[in-house]
Amino acid sequence: MGPVGLEDPYSAIARAIERYRWILTEAFILSSRLGFRFSALILAASDTTSVSLTWALTLLVTNPRVLRKAQDELDIKVGRDRHVEERDLNNLVYLQAIVKETLRTYPAVPLTVPHEATQDCTVGGYHVTAGTRVVVNLWKLQRDPRVWPNPSKFKPERFLSDGCDEGGGGGGGGEAANRDFRGQHFEYIPFGSGRRMCPGANFALQTLHMTLARLLHAFELRLPSSKDHDDDDDVEHPDEVVDMTEGSGLTMPKVTPLEVLLHPRLPLPLYEL
């Protein structure tokens, strides 16, 4: 394999090398190999994390019961006299379930990278010849009603071991309590699986958990179009209040930008720099 980027004549790196060949000598390219790779990893993780964070906030503002339950957990586990720290994340079980459910309903990357069959095989009843490229539809896989009851409903409780539903009783969820996104449960693989699993998964998850935890802990979230509602109001906002249309591309962004109002919920001194 030649210098990084040159093996794919259509890549942005290859085009830059061709255009600026008088600057980008072979020695420079070879010495920058790791830099290119690390930059690609960071950019990819940042993009997918921002997409996932947008969907998580969208789902929370349209599901006030879930939002309030997450904030109650933060108040109990962290308190209101300090900010969330990394050491708190392991104790935020419901927040972890929210992230898992967000990645299930709106995976940042709806299609896996292509995989090529090395030999003739049968996949789902279809004959796949050697050399065929196979792409897995993660969005469809993670909304399969044969695996996920009521798959279109945003219900973090399905990932909790106690399986508590909206009323706090048992039996309303928990069917996915033992499933994780490390590639061992093939009905739930938002980061892919195997040796080609997303290398930036840990970075993306850590950033997503910490950012979401600090936002929910420090601020009340409101939709600009919604009226102030009572804290005991469990009525979810209808979908028409927030456009849930999904975009297309390598990632799955929200077509309409999310507009949300943030109101401080902690003592004011905590917001001082």
Automatic annotation (TrEMBL):
Pfam families: p450
Localization: Membrane
GO CC annotations, alphabetized: membrane
InterPro entries cross-referenced by the UniProt entry: Cyt_P450 (IPR001128), Cyt_P450_CS (IPR017972), Cyt_P450_E_grp-I (IPR002401), Cyt_P450_sf (IPR036396), Plant_Cytochrome_P450_Monoox (IPR050651)
Predominant subcellular localization, coarse grouping: membrane
Cofactor: heme
Pathway field: Alkaloid biosynthesis
BP term (GO), one: isoquinoline alkaloid biosynthetic process
GO terms of molecular function: heme binding; iron ion binding; monooxygenase activity; oxidoreductase activity, acting on paired donors, with incorporation or reduction of molecular oxygen
Keywords assigned by UniProt, alphabetized: Heme, Iron, Membrane, Metal-binding, Monooxygenase, Oxidoreductase, Transmembrane, Transmembrane helix
Keyword Cell wall biogenesis/degradation found: no
Annotated binding of heme, by residue: C198
SUPFAM superfamilies: Cytochrome P450 (SSF48264)
Family membership: Belongs to the cytochrome P450 family.
Protein name: Cytochrome P450
UniProt source species: Macleaya cordata (Five-seeded plume-poppy)
Phylogenetic placement of the source organism: Eukaryota, Viridiplantae, Streptophyta, Embryophyta, Tracheophyta
